Amino acid sequence: MTGTGTTNRFSDKLLELLDRVEYRRVETGEDMEEVARIRFKAYKMADILPLKGNTLIDDIDFDSHAYVFGIYYEERLISTVRLHHVTPEHRVSSSGSIFPNEIDAFLDAGMTLIDPVRLAADPEVLSEMPAIPYLTLRIATMATDYFEVDRCLQLVKPQHAAFYKRVFDADTIVSPQKNCGNYNIDLTLMATRTKETLPPLYKRFPFFKSEPYERRMMFARGEEMPFSPLTVRPTARRAHFGQGRVQIGNAGYAG
Fold it and tell me: Ranges for the N-acyl amino acid synthase FeeM catalytic core domain (predicted)?
């Protein structure tokens, strides 16, 4: 089978999985408790962070430019991620606390960033569904589109660098470093040039695509979105094939 054929079959499989996925923006104490539970299980398994103090839920989970999401598969929470929209005027981010000089260099040049951190997947489900990272990182791809940022960051283990280079064409900004903040692991900082990378990414992996109204429901706040949708159903299939319906909670909406 050709590489293109393999990619197409993989994308078809991911689109099928997305049909049973819901995204939920986490803004209530009850949902935060679920996020803390998934983080605990994932961090304990991988020994990423010390499981004490404010590791599981910290102050910047509630920052005005932070977005915490739960990914639900058949109504079961399987993973979570926190995204920071980082701008020259609002510099709060996890990657910035670890590699401040490199992040400030981007911001001082007038760039805006998406910083996806606190990625955590239920280890029991991950062993059965290795596609969870793609389902989770799709949210970061949507954020780069919605906020029209210049870079999407990746603060990751060195062992994962090849994945981010292969899938997201990420550049290495900081080579692997030891003793990074509270982390128990070595870390490297990477960054994707989003404006160059998104068009070919969507062509190779159409499950990363989304409709504008899905991105708005995921990230809009204030007057643009006076309520937080209970759940958001992915629109990748509609964005790819140009048909279908988007759902908010239990209600269906024609596009």
Answer: 35-192
